[in-house]
Amino acid sequence: MRKSIYPVIFIMGITFISILMLAILNEITKNRIDEYREIEEKKQILYIFNLSNENDSNQKIEDKFSKYIKIETKDNISKYTALNNDEIIGYGFKIEGKGLWGLIEGYIALSKDYNKIIGLTFIKHSETPGLGGRIDETWFKDQFRELEIGDNISLIFRPREGGNIDSISGATQTSDKVRLLIVNEIEKIRDKWRD
Amino acid sequence: MKLKKLEINGGIKMPKTKLKKTIFLGIWAENPIYRQILGICSALAVTNLMKNALIMGIGLIFVTAFSELTVSFIRKFTPKHIRMVIQVLIISVFVIIVDIILKAYMQDIHKALGPYVGLIITNCIIMGRCEAFAQKNTPFISFMDGIANGLGYTIVLLLIAFFRELLGFGTIFNIPVMGEWWTNWTIMVMPPGAFFMLAILIWITKTIQVDKKEVKN
Description:
The complex is a heterodimer. By secondary structure, chain A is an alpha+beta fold. Chain A has a domain at 69-193. Chain A is 44% helix and 23% strand. In chain A, strands 1-2-3-4-5-6 form a six-stranded antiparallel beta sheet. In chain A, β2 (77-84) and β3 (87-98) form a beta hairpin. The longest helix of chain A is centred in the N-terminal third of the chain and has 47 residues, at 2-48. The termini of chain A are far apart. Chain B has helices at residues 2-7, 18-29, 40-45, 50-73, 83-105, 107-113, 115-118, 124-134, 139-169, 186-189, 191-209, 212-216; strands at 171-172, 175-176. Chain B has one domain (15-28, 36-216). Chain B is globular. Chain B is mainly alpha-helical. The longest helix of chain B is centred in the last third of the chain and has 31 residues, at 139-169. Residues 1-8 of chain B have low confidence and may be disordered. In chain B, α4 crosses α5, α5 crosses α6 and α9 (139-169) packs across α11. The A-B interface holds A 6-7, 10-11, 14-15, 18, 21-22, 25-26, 29, 32-33, 36, 40, 129, 133 and B 74, 77-79, 81-82, 85-86, 89-90, 93, 96-97, 100-101, 103-105, 107, 114-116.
């Protein structure tokens, strides 16, 4: 009896100590990580409007954010309006949807008439590193800069007829899912916000 | 057996004390990468920039050393048949510690290394050394074995990364050194470049380390 109980108690003890250590460390660093996440979010929102610079300091991001961006909330969903001297540049929204392996979250900026994507970024995904994970590389995101999509949201991968974006080689599934995600989210945004 | 050991290592004599011997074996004679062929996955993956390689190496030194220390401390109380579970648990704890510290204090690097930090858990070097060394040795010497093996790994990573970054980007630690005339070898920063560099390195070290007599046998 004792022989079979000892390993159980031993492993429980070790697990308990480990979790305690990690919990304490997590508690200590929590504030810092949250602060960073907030800054990162602001940076991404500025990025979709093409207002950010790779080397901006945290202070500069804060300044720019309060200068250009106005937040408006409806049913717990935020709309980020970018203004340049009272002239509206466009609207930013959070988007999320299914990827190949898990949830993909990001931000998208649309022009005033919702017919043009100003910019796109992803903040969270669990796609395969090096393949689908390349959706957050600059070349992929830059394809969506100032991209006219018209009223019927035309996002078509080259070399198909009328293609306007490239998919990632070796990550057909992720590319398709991302395309679908963007189309769905834009439809939702239009339903909700366009008058 | 003893004689044969002397013949390897290109005629360099094996140090006498256990501490020196452990360090010598870990860094040079039984280097995890080019002698034990462990930890190849990350050695191929993070070596296109020296900065990433360095941070990965430091992370691995930390995790290996402290995992070995802990495993060695509790080796006498650990029931033999569940020792592997315990080892994995201990390794994961230290990897998560590295992950949290990077996330809180070095966000840029955390972003650059991304999923590879979590993958330190699966690095065969750590488990291999815990099982082969820490399970049978005292805490201090196990800790030093972890440092030595981690250093051996880091040095190799930096060496590979040096050539890959230099040829692939024309930079060293992100500082441009090659000038305008240099054309980047894109292949060096892509996976094939890593395979070529690693193979060349194993070839060179094998040639230096292995005495002709061993080849005859």
